[in-house]
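Researcher: Before we compare anything, I want clean individual predictions. No alignment, no superposition, just each chain on its own. First chain goes here; please echo the sequence and then give the structure tokens.
Model: Echoing the first chain and its structure:
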Amino acid sequence: MRLHRLDITAFGPFGGSRGVDFDALSAAGLFLLHGPTGAGKTSVLDAVCYALYGSVPGARQSGQGMHLRSDHAEPRTRTEVRLDLTVAGRRLEIIRQPPWERPKLRGTGTTVDKAQTWLREYDATAGAWKDLSRSHQEIGEEITQLLGMSREQFCQVVLLPQGDFARFLRADAEARGKLLGRLFDTQRFADVEKRLAERRRATEARVREGDAALLADAHRMQQEAGDAMELPELAPGEPGLADAVLDAAALARATARERLTVAHCRLAAAESAHTETRHALDDVRELARLQSRFTEARQRAERLQERAGAHHEAQRRMERSRKAEAVAPALELREAAEEEHHRAARAEAHARGMLPDSYADAGAAGLASAARRAAEELGGLDAARRAERRLAGLAEERSGLDRQERADEEVLREADTWLDAWDATRAALQSRVDSAQEAATRAEQLAVQRDPMRRRLTAARTRDTLAADLEDAQRRALASEQQALGSRAHWLDLKEQRLNGIAAELAAHLTDGEPCAVCGATEHPAPARKVAGHIDREAEGKAHKASQQADRQHTEDERRLGVVREALAAATAEAGDTATAQLEESAAELEQEYARARRAASALHAAHEELRGAEREREQRLADRQQAAVRAASRVTRRETLEHEQGQLEEELRKARGSSGSVAARAAQLERQVALLTEAADAARTAEDTAQRLKDADARLADAAYRAGFDTPQAAAAALLDATAHRELQHRLDAWQTEEAAVRAVLAEAGTAAAAQLPAADPATAEHAATRAELRLREAASAWDAAARCCAELDRLSARATEAVRRLAPLREEYDRVARLAALTAGTSADNERRMRLESYVLAARLEQVAAAATARLQRMSAGRYTLVHSDDRTGRGRSGLGLHVVDAWTGRERDTATLSGGETFFASLALALGLADVVTDEAGGVRLDTLFIDEGFGSLDDQTLDEVLDVLDSLRERDRSVGIVSHVPDLRRRIHAQLEVVKGRAGSTLRQRGV
């Protein structure tokens, strides 16, 4: 990598645009970057780092690049860094612009522009630059890939911080390991250690989990086996746990099988005894049943003998009932004939009672003849009834004509009255329609004016509010402007006072024997002293922060003032100069007039409907008046016809009524007379027929009773039983016969009679013996079941434990292997004699390479006296691997690097930095680094040593390198002709190149 040119604008202490021609500076091989403290020497190196990686080293990177902007820059000037370099044979140009808070182009206030990045490559064939990318991420990845190192590695390799390597030289193993880890990216080896430790913990947890499950099965086996099994006193994860559990399980299974055999023998004996007692119990129960059966049969026979007389009486009654059943049909026939005769006699008496006394002695034939004569007279009145009904219809029709005449007269009177007022009514209705139409048109016109009036009123109210806000915003902006000017003046005064007394501030940190941070000298004969009222960094920082806060507040107040002004102008343009009260009054009047117009317009539809309804009513009344006239003419003709027909019908009815009031009354009288005579004749004939049938039934009943063996029909009726009594008596007779047969059968059984001769049976004693035998059988069966379940459960749990041990075997092997590797890489294993972690081992190899590369230059700088060597000895109780010693050729002894003097420490640190740069370069893929920077430390060297160091640096030109030395040692300005001077001033720093 070779730098060609650097252009910076508004970056760090540089307020304007400045450029550095590295090609001219690198021509001499060595060049000096110098300037007073705080001028910005480090900012030049920060610009190089920012151009490459988009950030600056260490703590100087903050605020996402917002603090990189120079406080001396003009507000309209954008911060920019442009770097021209060659890397990996490619000529590139990188342009970076950090985020920028700039004034707005229109209005007041500020806005933030995003960061911008460009990457271009020079095309030698075309002789022009071509764009490659504008993506931050793509450019960052491209540069990191080309350089082969991260920002941290670049800052350690290209921008050699001598003070950091002096601390590295004296640091302990832990601090040295952190720096080397960042440079050589050994995090992957630490990740391997962490991964192995995690795998060890994970496998250990799985082994413990498996052992816990195995112990849980062992506890279940102990619960089943009881005192036949003892658990091993081992915790999960301890060696030998699996074998101990399997041995205990085998012993428990053997004991359980022995117990099962004993229980089986006891069960067989109990089953045999139980069978014998059950057979004895069955025999005793059978004997008791037969004896009880015989006794019960004897008792039943005695009860039958006691009821024998009643049984014979029931047999005799059943026999008489069977004989009386032959007379039953004749009895039923006589009862039916008698009932029918009684009903006919009652009907005849009732019918004769409805007739006049003149018919009391008439027979059935006489009554029928009288009914025929009355019916003939009734038939002659049909024509008269029709004439009477027609006469009533004529009267009703004449009444209808009268009612119609009165209704038509009323219709004509109302129609004439309404039609006389039609013209006035129509004019009034048309006037209402016209008024409502005009109101609707006015409402539409007013509706168009409402929204503009509302907007003007709202704008006027906003105008009044913003007018007050404008005065307040102007007062705030003026006050914040004065505050910002005062705060900035106060900060600049404090800054100038601090710069005037900066020597005293730097002298406060001087320590005898320690190099000066400015000149590098270790002797401090007359350090500057602070005077009364000295301004330190903290006071200046507070004033600076206060100034920045005041500027931000002023910018915010100006922005708010601009916003209020814009809003006020917009509101004034909308509302005009009319007062708000006047606009409110106009708006209220407009709303009232609009409401009145809406109310009047709402009646338009009703007025239209009312007018159309009146026109329809006029047409209807005209039609009604014409129809009424037509009906009046037809009524006159109809009345004459009805009067003529009425006269004829009245004469015909007078002849037909006779002495009755009407034809209908005479017809009703005849109809009733015909009905009564007919009913009486029928009843008389029925009574005569039923009397004859009753006489015949009495003769047949007397004959049937005699034949059945009864003296009288009454005796036969008394012997006859109904169906319920007959069934009950038959059931009693059947039950007697069944019981008698059953008793005889039991008494005739040989086994039952033989059992009755034996002593009485004792079932209770036999049942008690059987119960005891059954209890002993259940106890033996329960014991056998428990022993069998125990054996089965132990076999199942043992098989599961054996399977678990088999499955855990590979996991145990993996755990042992991972645990050995984790302990070895962590440095805790007995096999790791030096207790070195894996990352420390890798870093020790890198440190050994760095020490070898540094020794090549240290021997030249120290005239062959000193050699850097790597040591992996343990320090105290700590771990080994990252020790660094120096070998003194004058004494032949190896000693700690902390014993070197200030100048010796400097050139040893410089040699270490150059050696580290070579090793990191090789580690990064051998990228050639043609430009290096070395920061400070040369003031601690004497003239001879300084010459030797410069010779070593000058020898770097042999590898076509250029080295920039950052220092303000005066002697270096005389020794190195190519110089880049940083000059500071109140308006910002500037750059000057000399000797090129």
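Researcher: Okay. Second chain, same rules.
Model: Second chain and its structure:
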Amino acid sequence: MNYGKEGVRKQESALRNGTGRWGKKFGTILFKVFLLAILSVVILLISAGLGAFQGIIDSSPDISNIDVTPSGFSTFVYDSEGNQIAKLVSTDSNRIPVTLDMVPKDLQNAFVAIEDARFYDHNGIDIQGIIRAGYVAVTSGSFSEGASTITQQLIKNNVFTGWTEEDTLVAKFKRKIQEQYLAIQLEKTMSKEDILLNYMNTINLGQNTLGVQAASLRYFNKSVSELTLSECAVIAGITQNPSKFNPITHPDKNAERREKVLGNMLDFGFITQTQYDEAMADDPYSRIQVVDSETEDNTVNSYFVDALTDVVLDDLVEAGYTETQAYSLLYSGGLKIYSTMDPKIQGICDEVFQDESNFPSNTSYLLDYALTTKNAAGEYINYSDEMMETYFKQSNKSFDLTFSSTEAAEEAIEQYKAEVVGEDETIIDEKYTLTPQPQVSLTIEDQATGYIVAMEGGRGTKTASRTLNRATDVKRQPGSAFKVLAAYAPALDSAGYTLATVINDAPFNYSNGTPVRNWYNSYRGLSTLRSGIRDSMNVVTVKLMTLITPQLGYDYLVNKFHISTLVEREERNGKVYSDIQQTLCLGGITYGVKNIEINSAYATIANGGYYIKPKLYTKIVDHDGNVIIDNTSIEGEQVLKETTAFLLTSAMQDVVTSGTGTAVNFGGTAIAAKTGTTSDENDVWLCGFTNYYTATCWAGYDNNEDLSTSEETHLAKTLWRKVMSQIHEDLPSASFSVPSGITTATVCKESGLLPTSGLCDGSLGTEYFENGTVPTESCNVHIYQTICNYSGLAATDLCPFKVQQVVTVIPEEPDILKQSAGSGAGSSTLVDPNVLCPHNESFFAQPNAQEILVQQNQEIINRNAAAAGVDPNAAVDPNAAATDPNAAAADPNAAAADPNAAAADPNAAGTTPEPATTEATPPTDDQQNGG
């Protein structure tokens, strides 16, 4: 072996060469493996990407199942003459659809020019636009350059409606890919014209408007078909950013955008240079500002529309929709609701109720207050008006939340905050409202159709929609307004009573022993049911209710008059409440009654006893013109006999002509009405009707304070008359017609029976009766009785001063009434036949009997002369009396020929004013309501 240096070098060199060759081979292998790995990864990524892309495509909505037409449309409400009175909208529904022939070509071209210049050339996506947007993004880092086509925007707005909530890039890319895919698919099935039209009906154009028609009306107060080129450019310029380019709030920014729109239209050949110049010279923004200043804030609906929306929602649910569907349909379904509101009548009501001079001069204000603070520990503290009232009552027990002025209320608020809010507390939110008091409500119904033609739910500025509506939402005690419905209607209709039936107005107790008191603080004796209605007599009404039973009265209210707020039996906190009791007839009920329902009850009487459910609309038409609810039928049910309705109407006419409601008699037409006043005068009512309309007006404090002044206690009557007198100004005078089945008869008004000649001459009256109910028995109240004209006692056979006079005998009452009769329950003028005058045999056995007779005769003469207002010395010679003791004064009672004549009908005058005060009346206690 060669171990020399040269040999060693050769061996080392050989070894090095061998290692290099293997290294190169190994490196090449590694490089190939690396390339293969990269290629595999690329292939995997591409495959994954293609798979993901295909997955995204596959998860896209089926093009055959999607609908790109806008789904949210405004609902419009119209009055009875077809005028629009409200627009109901929710988020994404203030839209009015139009057809393509209504949209000016300039507006179509304006959108294409500014949003999608190659709209008519691409297949749904714009490749050039995508490349341009990508280039801008790479070179400038800005993604502001849009590449979405009109087709894509349509799909985004109507299919991917949740795109505004995307919070990751992955979600955005996924939606973008699906959007582009669906855009291509949509272009295969829908024409460019339909795509553009749906786009123009969909887009957000600011100021809570969706679609070109809503925007045109809001900015220019005209239909989209009437827009000029300049105005078209204004609207098209809004699209990219409805807030930034709003022509009302940012006219300068919109003007810049408008110039770009017009410039693009010129560049693309949509308009000529002349058209461009003319449009640029126009000033559309001055017109927009004028329209904006004249545009009313229609976001606050009237009380009528508030009530209407509640009814429509209920009716839609009843028709089979879920509550969610009903709400969506009402506010986003593009419905047309034709209401029953009469614009003229509603206008009269609005004018009267908005005129503060029609209200009491001592208007006060009820405070509703809420305050939220945050302390140093980060805790939120809430303060309410109840807490405020409790705080002030610690030092002033009479304090309440009613203030004499808004300034006084605001001072109290500041004082309260200064004293209870800690130094470490920061005010987060504070809200308060001041509502004028007393408050009011009114419902007017055309009784022949059931249509509610006008409504007022309160006084003062209405600050929001669907607020407290006192005509439909609030339950108040009806007081005496319930008398006709709960007692007199069932008594006449099915219990065998007539208007001539007599009940003794005398002391009487409820079944629990509490006395029933009349508002006039006295008793009037035998009184007819007509008088009971006319003069709103509490004792007569409660006795009648006792006779017919509270159950019958309750059944009529619930089943005939459809009062929904009554309680048959309810247990609360271990106590049982029921409205089936004597106090029902005086309006003492658990919860109260709604204005619209008691008005409907009186409308039933006005309509001949035929009940029709109150209606606020006649029909509802959907977005496609189909009638989904037809409410035009006036079918109802005959709940009272027509004759009963007439008898009640006749008696209520007396209320207006000579009873408790004379203040509402505006003349010119027949009026029937019933007043209502509750205990302590918390509530006052006037329920009345003519041949045309039935109206019910209520007044009272929201917090149940007493109505203390005459202006306040007469407020319901005042407003009722002011409204109804104007409504009837141009209507022909009309009297209430007498139906068949009604007859008249003369009766004794103190017995309600046929009169006896010579006995009932001072108490005769003509009354209406239903056929077959005219009394057949003769008067049992008036009789002749022989009395001693000197002593007034029953005369003996020997009495020289015998006279016959008519006396009143109080008929015996049914046992059920006798059980609760109070002391002094009789007012008979019958002289006790067992107590005789002194002229008996013993008297005449006296030696000076004749002298005594002469003296007694002179006393009679003097009494009669004094009663007649003549000189007693002009009387005849008293000696003549010795021969005939009665000759000197042929009839010592001549001055009062009929002692009952002066009070033949204790209620005849009918001019007694309504009471100043009445008694308190919880449902289970005494009800002493006024007229």
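Researcher: What stands out in the second chain?
Model: Residues 865 and 871 are 6 Å apart (CA to CA). Additionally, The two ends are 147 Å apart (CA to CA).
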